[in-house]
Amino acid sequence: MRPGLKRRVKTARPDSTKSRESGSTKGAAPATGPGSEKYQRILDAAVEVIAENGYFSSPVSAIAKRAGVADGTIYLYFKSKDDVLRTAIDATFNKFHKQVEDEFKTLQGPREQLEYIAQVHLESHAVNRSMAILMQTEVRQSAKFIAEFSHHHLVKYIQVVREVVRRGQQEGIFRGDVSDGVVAHCMFGAIDELLSSAVFTGRVYDAKTTAAQVIDVLLHGITAES
Amino acid sequence: MRPGLKRRVKTARPDSTKSRESGSTKGAAPATGPGSEKYQRILDAAVEVIAENGYFSSPVSAIAKRAGVADGTIYLYFKSKDDVLRTAIDATFNKFHKQVEDEFKTLQGPREQLEYIAQVHLESHAVNRSMAILMQTEVRQSAKFIAEFSHHHLVKYIQVVREVVRRGQQEGIFRGDVSDGVVAHCMFGAIDELLSSAVFTGRVYDAKTTAAQVIDVLLHGITAES
DNA sequence: TTAGAGAATGAACCGCAGTTCATTCTTGGC
DNA sequence: GCCAAGAATGAACTGCGGTTCATTCTCTAA
Fold first, then answer.
1. In angstroms, rounded to a whole number, what is the distance separating the alpha carbons of residues B146 and B129?
2. Is B185 on the interface with A (CB under 8 A)?
3. Residues of chain B numbered 92-111 and touching chain A (CB < 8 Å)
4. Residue B66 lies in a domain
5. Axis crossing angle, helix B110-127 with helix B81-104, rounded to the nearest 10
6. Residues A12-60 pLDDT 10s
7. Given CA atoms B189, B194, B198, B201 in this order, what sign does their dihedral have?
8. What angle (nearest 5°) sits at the alpha carbon of residue A189, between those of residues A184 and A191?
């Protein structure tokens, strides 16, 4: 049987008592474009649901339900299920990179820059808990399609830290006998693990204070008396 | 149609030219028990296949094929697909903990103990690359059933490091004004990230040298001149 | 009021993959 | 050689879930 020959029976629509909050706040909203309100609602719903159940245990139908739309509607806004997740992750990383880039214009000291990165990274938990969970679970591979593109963002993060470290070494602020790569990975890993642990245990912390502690350890080590 | 009423047609088995390497090296092998050779082959195959494709993109049939057994055979040795992965991860963690525990009997200095943990952790890449990949991808959640039990192993790791740090603080070797928890997470995170990066980029390193570098940074920091 | 264009819907399609189990193969004792 | 008893097999079962698309709804312009 070819599809499209014998479909639809549909026992008369129940009745249109759906909420329908499309008050159309703007005259010319971009319809199904990225600016649309429904577009954002689907993204948020996807992040929430996937954070709770994991990508492969989150049917599109569950995401649609959370967003208050029909299953098929999601495909008006996104190419596929993958695309929804990819878009959400991309947006988060881009926001992070932009925030750091902007701040670096006025914050010039290597030590201060490292501390700022640590702080923003640690703050992500409070900014959007679901997204933080998602980052700790789905981004670290498990699905090949995520692996490839998110790896790129991670590399960019490491690059930024490396450059700061290298500059600090050139300025004589940091030791020159340690690899900037190792330092960058150590710093990223330390912060990420702290965040991860907080996410999974539900522990809360102050991002500024914790960032200061991490950078303190990174800069001075844990050996007694200097 | 009830199952079991009209099954099997089977066009005569092709011919029994299967390898059949069951030379039965031991007189009384425990059949389908955990000691069996086939049991181990299934575990190894599962780790390999899942490392390559991810858990949810690894059909049981693919694992069976890699192990050289029929799909159904896996269910003679394991309760479910989950069970295979769980068993493999458990075994790896248990081996790690045992190795550390044993070495600690003769290696008593806090600094040396931290370095040893770092080294073993970093060595895991060389010991079993597939398992290292699996640890970096599947263990960090994405599937709820893995989350729960693997979290337990991670907590145990952190506990061990915390105790070493605390002892170092009591002995006056380490600073007492930094949280042992933060230090433990920093150390674990740093090493894990280094390993992760190596796993995904294919970069190789010497575990002993790298471990020494990480511990050096952790102990002395990256600030110039002491 | 009404036509029609586009947004939204959700049932149906379809393929996949975890698990089962009737059947076949293998082994070891007689 | 023969016959249980257990190991192994793999086709079939089953349910799930991503995606499609015929149909319905909504909204604007004439």
1. 20
2. yes
3. none
4. yes
5. 140
6. 333 333 333 333 333 334 566 676 889 999 999 999 999 999 999 999 9
7. positive
8. 100
Cα separation, B182 vs B179, in Å, equals: 5
At A204-215, the pLDDT tens digits run 889 999 999 999
Residue A94 has pLDDT above 70, yes or no: yes
The H or E element spanning position A183 is helix A180-201
Question: Are residues A86 and A34 part of one domain?
Answer: no
Q: In this complex, how many residue pairs, one in chain A and one in chain B, have their CB atoms less than 8 Å apart?
A: 163
B187 CA, C21 C1': separation in Å? 51
pLDDT of residue B97: 96
Residues B70 and B140 in one domain: no
Backbone angles phi, psi at B174, to 5 degrees: -110, 155
Please state the three-class secondary structure of B108-134 as a single string. CCHHHHHHHHHHHHHHHHHHCHHHHHH
Using the predicted structure, report yes or no on whether residue B80 has a pLDDT greater than 80: yes
Counted domains in chain A:
2
Contacts of A185 in chain B (CB under 8 A): 190, 193-194, 197
Q: Nearest-CA residue of chain B relative to A158?
A: B197
Given an 8 Å threshold on Cβ–Cβ distance, is B186 in contact with A214? Answer: yes
Answer whether B111's CB lies under 8 Å from B168's CB. Answer: yes
Domain that holds residue B22: 9-78
A183/B193 Cβ within 8 A: no
pTM of the entire predicted model = 0.86
Residue A3 lies in a domain: no
